[in-house]
Amino acid sequence: SEEFSRKAAKNAKNTIVQTIREQEKNALYNELHAKEKEIVTGVVQRINDNGDMTIDIGRTQAVLKADDNFKDKQFKCGDRIKVYVASVSNRERSGLSVKISRKSQELVKKLFEEEVTEIKDGTVEIMAIAREAGSRTKMAVRANVPHVDPVGINGARVKNIVNELGNEQIDIVEWDDNPAQLIVNALSPAKVVSAVADEEEKKAKIIVSEQQLSLAIGKSGQNVRLAAKLTGYGI
């Protein structure tokens, strides 16, 4: 090194430092990329005036946007919070970017996979989810093992998920390969008199008694709207 000029030594140092930084950045990206489409637990670091929250998720921070902050639990700085990692990108100019969400229906799915043993081990499978975050979720499930009631999965653990989501209502209904029966199930708790589904048009005609009509439609049309999202049929 005594033979190097000061300029050469500085260039060598800069090259080494830059290479280390690049490797650290790549290692962090790989670590976070492995958590993509999963739930991570972070700590609320800062809450901006516009409602955006900066969350410490380990070796980096991510911003939970205010428009993703539905009628949820009220968080304050220092609180632990579960978020869904929607995407992780590593751009040369802007650097590492982590998009997190609590509004995604995937958050509900992952919470059930974490909390409920029957779903974790594959005894019960989640087939479809429709969600209006902070208000209500409908989830269709089916049993992959005979004599298991998929709708009757552990109540206490479901309650934990409801609490995590700020008392969001969760309707668990049984999946059925027959579209008409699936729609009947999806409109629960309303009782249906008859259902006819057109598989080509993806439309269904449902008849309920007058006493069940408001329950079938739901407050501001929410029950029938979520049933339509869940099944993929216009009702």
Helices and strands in order, then pairings?
Blueprint lengths: L5 H28 L5 E9 L5 E4 L4 E4 L15 E12 L3 E7 L3 H11 L1 H4 L3 E9 L3 E8 L11 H10 L4 E6 L4 H8 L7 E5 L4 E5 L2 H8 L4 H10 L4
Parallel strand pairs: 7-8
Antiparallel strand pairs: 1-2, 1-4, 2-3, 4-5, 6-7, 9-10
Short description:
With 235 residues, the chain is of the alpha+beta class. The protein has helices at 6-33, 105-115, 117-120, 155-164, 179-186, 210-217, 222-231; strands at 39-47, 53-56, 61-64, 80-91, 95-101, 124-132, 136-143, 169-174, 194-198, 203-207. Strands 3-2-1-4-5 form a 5-stranded antiparallel beta sheet, covered by helices on one side. Strands 6-7-8 form a 3-stranded mixed beta sheet, with helices on both faces. Strands 9-10 form a two-stranded antiparallel sheet.
Rg, please? 24 Å
**Helix share, percent:** 25-40%
Ranges where pLDDT stays below 50 over 5 or more residues in a row are none
Lateral strand order in the biggest sheet: 3-2-1-4-5
Count of DSSP-assigned helices? 7
Describe the structure.
This protein has 235 residues and is of the alpha+beta class. It is 34% helix and 29% strand. It has a five-stranded antiparallel β-sheet with strand order 3-2-1-4-5, covered by helices on one side. Strand 2 (53-56) and strand 3 (61-64) form a beta hairpin. Helix 2 (105-115) packs antiparallel against helix 4 (155-164). The longest helix has 28 residues, at 6-33. The mean pLDDT is 90.
What descriptors fit this protein?
single chain; 235 residues; alpha+beta; five-stranded antiparallel sheet; three-stranded mixed sheet; elongated
